[in-house]
Amino acid sequence: MAAGALAIAFGWSLTSPNPLPANEERQGRTRKPLLSVLRLPCVGVFISLVALIQGSHAAYYAFSAIHWTQSGISDVVVGYLWSLGVVVEVAMFAISQKLFGGWRVASLFRLAAVAVIVRWTITGLTTDVWALVFSQSLHGFTFGVAHIAAMRYIQQQEADNVMALQALYSAIPMGIVMAALTMLSGELYHLFGGHSFFIMALLGVPAWS
Fold first, then answer.
1. Which CATH superfamily is domain 52-208 in?
2. Which of 30, 140, 178, 204 fits a disulfide with 88 by CB distance 3.0 to 4.6 angstroms?
3. Are 145 and 92 in contact (CB under 8 A)?
């Protein structure tokens, strides 16, 4: 299925339309250097917030399935738990405008940070399936709302900064920081097992404040 999806995506990419959207200028925009954009004080705060919130998922992505199966949960149920997180995330994107259309970016990040604290605390405390169902339902907030806030922040910036901000968002929080925290999660899981999720929960505290 994955190979088939990739083949479809490749074929679709070959038919990408050339015209720009109606509200886009045809003149090329100036692309500012990444470092000059990164030095802006507000951008540093933005990158830090996203790194803390999205980076808190590192232990989940790397070790949740191992932790749950070792606690006696079947592979099938673990698959359902992961699927639930994806479904909730997609649903959150679908209704985000109705729920959060009038919210400020800072408020969205704070909501995501609170969800991070609650979700990973529950995940560290118990492997009860129904508790995990609830914690997995928070994926729409810990990941989805944080992503919505990030995209809204980028859209609100000067047009010349947008491309640089998108690149920085992908490279630093979602790339470098996630990779580093995944490696750290390996050491934490070796030392503390499921309690390593408590450390992921702590990442939400400075993001909330």
1. MFS general substrate transporter like domains (1.20.1250.20)
2. 140
3. yes
> Could you state, in order of their start, the residue ranges of all structural domains in the chain?
52-208
Distances from the Cα of 119 to the Cα of 12, 113, 126, angstroms: 37, 10, 11
Rounded-to-integer distance, Cα 105 and Cα 96, Å: 13
pTM of the model: 0.85
pLDDT in tens, 2-25: 889 889 888 887 776 655 555 555
Cα separation, 90 vs 148, in Å, equals 12
